[in-house]
Specification:
Blueprint (H helix, E strand, L loop, with lengths): L1 E6 L6 H5 L1 H8 L4 E6 L12 E2 L9 E2 L1 H12 L6 E10 L2 H7 L4 E6 L4 E2 L1 H7 L2 E4 L9 H12 L10 H4 L18 E2 L2 E2 L2 H4 L3 H19 L1 H6 L4 H13 L2 H9 L2
Parallel strand pairs: 1-2, 1-6, 4-7, 5-6, 5-8
Antiparallel strand pairs: 3-4, 9-10
Helix pairs in contact: 3-5, 9-11
Bound molecules: adenine.
């Protein structure tokens, strides 16, 4: 998969994209990234990319001519969608990451200043995404978040193919608790079932604990998911086992 990223600060990407899983995935040819410096498309002497807003007020606006020159250059040989990172966009989630990971190429536009000129938004942007209901200084970190979430879903990027499937959200639930050696740590033992070697019992335990965690921490997710007959039964069991008080406590400790 190929990512084109339009930004005023290409140097911000070198750390996150050069190390760990994203760095290795690029070395192995599983993904590629081109960074486009928007300032290169400002053609006046001072390479100005922003201007004051019509109607007055605080904040600056990205100049439409500069942005459109940059977008059109990137789009010259591609029909890839242009995704603008903005707090006004649809909130990014695992399902959107999964959908985008099936595309061969996407173009990400990191905004800065107050906003982009509305005419660019209407004419050259295919999708607007936000990474949450808070405002950052620019769209660079959101672009990195998108690339990271999408890249780890591409075949071969994670060492163990199964690990993305087990993720929180991938089946509409939070992930179940995990344990590793030693079986006893500071007086706390690993649940017996995980040491039993009984695959079916382990599967049911994991499903139950994923459902419990989701019900306790993110009940809103259960409203969005169509539960199977087995999941419904297990959830009823959990509700009987867990007191309202316990639910409140778990939420507080998040
Ligand atoms: N730019 C500034 N804040 C943002 C956010 N929350 N999501 C996406 N882009 C942004």
């Amino acid at each position: 998969m190929h990512f084109d990223i339009l930004t005023l600060f290409p140097e911000m990407f070198s750390g996150p994209f050069g190390t760990s899983i994203l760095g290795k995935a690029q070395e192995n040819g599983l993904l590629s990234v081109d960074l486009w410096n928007i300032r290169d498309y400002a053609i006046d002497k001072h390479r100005v990319v922003d201007d004051t807003p019509y109607g007055g007020g605080a904040g600056m606006v990205f100049k439409p001519d500069v942005l459109v020159r940059a977008i059109e250059e990137v789009k010259k040989d591609s029909s890839a969608p242009v995704i603008y990172l903005t707090p006004q966009g649809k909130v990014f989630n695992q399902q959107i990451a999964q959908e985008l990971s099936t595309l061969p190429r996407i173009i990400l536009l990191s905004g800065h200043y107050e906003e982009i000129d509305e005419r660019v938004r209407r004419g050259w942007i295919d999708q607007e995404l936000s990474i949450g209901d808070y405002v950052l200084t620019g769209g660079e970190l959101p672009a990195m978040v998108l690339v990271d979430a999408i890249a780890r879903l591409l075949p071969g990027v994670l060492g163990d193919e199964d690990s993305a499937e087990q993720d929180s959200f991938s089946n509409g639930l939070l992930d179940c608790p995990h344990y590793t050696r030693p079986a006893q740590f500071r007086g706390v033992s690993v649940p017996d079932v995980l040491l039993s070697g009984h695959h079916e019992k382990i599967r049911v335990w994991r499903l139950k604990e994923a459902l419990r965690r989701t019900w306790l921490r993110r009940p809103d997710l259960l409203g969005l998911k169509e539960l199977s007959a087995e999941e419904n039964l297990i959830l009823e069991e959990i509700k009987k086992e867990t007191s309202v008080e316990g639910r409140f406590k778990d939420n507080e400790s998040n």
